[in-house]
Hints:
Helicase, Ruva Protein, domain 3; Rossmann fold; 2 domains; 11 strands; elongated
Amino acid sequence: MNKKKINVYSLIKREVEKLKKIGNKTASLDCRLLLSQILKKTNTVYTHQEVYISRNQIIKFKSLVKKREEGKPVSRILNRRNFWKREFILDEETLDPRPDSEILIETVLEHFSDSTPLLKILDLGSGSGCLGLSLLEEYENASIIFVDASKKSLNIVKRNSQQFRLKGRLKYINLDWHTDDWDTKLLNSADKTKFDIIVTNPPYIPSNEVKFLETEVREYDPILALDGGNDGLDAYRSIIPKLKNLLKPDGKIFVEIGKGQENLVSKIGLENGLLSVEYKKDLSNINRVIVFNIK
Ligand SMILES: C[S@@+](CC[C@H](N)C(=O)[O-])C[C@H]1O[C@@H](n2cnc3c(N)ncnc32)[C@H](O)[C@@H]1O
């Protein structure tokens, strides 16, 4: 196919203007990301760069910008999102990983600073696998169990683990933490060994607030990953009472929470034999992660 050498700036200029007109504040970056995908570049193209592109590819690029214009997030158009040190594959059943959740990874690394022990990790509500797989890369001898109610999202974790070449130290368990005996089922699949590290970022948005979320979240993130029931705390009430049973005596639990939920979630912990030993703030100065020990 005939390809012409073109400067990126001239290629994206009109499309950037279209996106800016509708209030898009990352118009240039969005266009460059979409163009990079079309050109199959591993790095994002720069505005001043020269690229070789065919007529067909230009048409495809414009059709992707059109989707962006219609409100679809770039991560959902590309089905990819950077998190921690990697680019994760997504699909419609996985939450688009949030930069704030990287605080959880940082907190685990502070509490478990040696990268070599044979740690056992549990990722409850794994979505794309962004938390668990990032930890698995940091702890060379760790093994992990991913749990999610969505079978499709567990397949995405599998695909991500394959692209990062992290096979072998992983298990995937499809279960619903709102059932009574989910902890027993989990321990049975884990050869009855308890965990050193448990991480979870459960759905925590109160049901009646979901409709007020930004369109990009409300329309493209799966409701199962967002809706935390009436007061947003349903998942914590199902998960936390079982955690003491799943954790080794000197293990630690790292829980992501929504804005203003720290006292309520700590209280659920306290009522179930867990002590909150640290709150960790996100970049907006909101308490985002609670660390629990066994009391
Ligand atoms: C907020 S998302 C977090 C995804 C991922 N860990 C992250 O941080 O991007 C919550 C995850 O919990 C899963 N989930 C929701 N309700 C569940 C339930 N009752 N049992 C098991 N998993 C559930 C969802 O499918 C979703 O993947």
